[in-house]
Amino acid sequence: MSAPKRIVILGGGFAGLYAALELEKLLRRTEGVEVTLINRENYFAFTPMLHEVAASDLDITHIVNPVRKMLRRVRFFLGEVRSVDLDAKTVTASHGADEHEHVLPFDHLVLGLGSVTNFYGLPGLAERALTMRSLADAIELRGRIIDNLEEADTECAALQCQREPLLTCVVAGGGFAGVETIAALNDFVRHSLRFYPNLRDEHVRMVIVHSGERILPELDEKLGLYAARKLESRGIEMRLGARVSGCSDEGVHLDDGSVIRSRLVVWTAGTAPNPLLETLPIEREHGRIVVNDCLQVKGRADVWAVGDCAVVPDHSTGGTCPPTAQHALRQGRHLARNVVAAAHGRPVKAFRFAALGQLAAIGRRTGVANVFGINFSGFVAWWLWRTIYLSKLPRAEKKLRVALDWTLDLLFSKDLVQFATFPSNAARTRLARTPTPQMETQR
After folding, report:
1. Domains 5-40+79-117+272-343 and 125-269 share a fold
2. What is the pLDDT of residue 438?
3. Per the CATH hierarchy, to which homologous superfamily does domain 5-40+79-117+272-343 belong?
């Protein structure tokens, strides 16, 4: 009996997960093929909705799907990829509390490791800035915003002149992630002020720092200018043509020498390829893996790459595919079909896809969108954003939960619950060790 063909997928983002889903469909009646997906989380996060989690529009679990509920035939390995040996055809991954290692052999390897945040070595930024790339990032940002509101409402914050920096939020990056994040946070903070008797609208300062001449450069100029006008009318300050040069206890430093007194900075202005890719003896371009139009790594018929970590030719533009979810999703599906074809000795096909459009929500039920070459703005664009992304959210259960969250959001105020990160036992232990005035008196 011959050994089974082994397909190993590294990374469970849009590209990796949808490759696994497509392989599951294609191989459901095929014997002799084993597929394994390795990811550091046991869930798939629908990242276009992260800002809605941060702004308390959606419950934190409603935009994530457990991988094991989505995959039945594909094996799932929860762990961290440590190394890849292309010559030996093995992947080393660790998991468990002791981080012990497993070696997984492969016949075909799919690299979908995505990207990581790039702070460009700016002083103090990595230590102080929050990011918006994962569910954990969105939860941390939500907690920080609520924590700042609670602290700013106290009299000691006013006496120590800390109210302004506590209620000043700086978002670095004027692309989709930055604009959607600051728009959502601005709505959340200003709508929450009525629950804090010592805070006023004039205490709040929201600043977006962008190196370009206008925000949302990926969209048509008219849409970018429309978005800027809307955000400015809601009290968001635009610092265009500027860059963050560092962070300190004083605040956020800009390259023009100015300092914004802020205790909250969100960094959405830079990404870098996964560092693991640097260890592989394959051709790269600016750190990303070069693949042919069939998504195969150059010089390797058994290694494939998709998503943010790959340089994929875009025949519709003559350039390369942008690192967007709609491209990664379709690359994953196409790659799965090519891997199955290659495993059975059939010819593989070139990837062809033209972007359907781009959308951004800019708060208060307004948005900007370009769909099939047609521009939309205002309520229609916001409605398109919600409709399209809801349709793309995996699993009917999550679609229903998100739709219900959005409906309840029309009727009730945003939730101000802060998620504690310490266990209740630890809290009780600290309280037990802290003498109260009554305890001192009894002594």
Report:
1. yes
2. 44
3. FAD/NAD(P)-binding domain (3.50.50.60)
The Cα–Cα gap between 355 and 353 comes to 6
What is the predicted pLDDT for the residue at 423?
58
**pLDDT < 50 positions in the chain:** 1, 427, 431, 436-443
**CA–CA separation, 212 and 173 (whole Å):** 9
Looking at residue 28, its pLDDT comes to 87
Structural fold of domain 125-269: FAD/NAD(P)-binding domain (3.50.50)
User: Domains of the chain: which residue ranges?
Assistant: 5-40+79-117+272-343, 125-269
pTM of the model: 0.91
